[in-house]
Amino acid sequence: MTRIHASADVDPSAEVGEGTLVWHLAQLREGVRVGTDCVIGRGAYLGPGVVVGDRCKIQNHALVYEPAVVADGAFIGPAVVFTNDLNPRAVTPAGRLKGADDWECVGVTVGEGASIGARAVCVAPVHVGAWAMVAAGSVVTRDVPAYALVVGVPARQIGWVDRSGQRVAERPADTTQA
After folding, report:
1. What does the record list as coiled-coil region(s) (predicted)?
2. Which fold has domain 1-178?
């Protein structure tokens, strides 16, 4: 059964899959698609057109800006931020307030089963590979390979993880998914 808390702001054009829970004060903007059996935490924000696969968890106060795509089974931790602007400015060089036509959105993509730890920032455009793990507080400025474990500011790879998130000595063999 899909449950959307009364305080959540879900645009009428957003699609929320069967069995998904949308908690207090979450905002799902126009054209958002959320798959089945997901959890969208308190105060989470999903920008226009964001796509979230099945069985994902997007924790409290995560900010997922368009045009992000999150694959099945991914975990987006509390207060994670996905950016979407290569050259963020409030105004044009002429001093006019920028509008939607004054910039091009770039997105973050997250592969199947990947995990992004609490308060991490993913600076678009980046791709976090399938089953990769981004440590809490990291700042991802370049693509993360499938099954990689990355930490720090900027994030750097320090090892490999398996599908359960446990550190392993070598890259798992089933890395055909990115």
Report:
1. none
2. UDP N-Acetylglucosamine Acyltransferase; domain 1 (2.160.10)
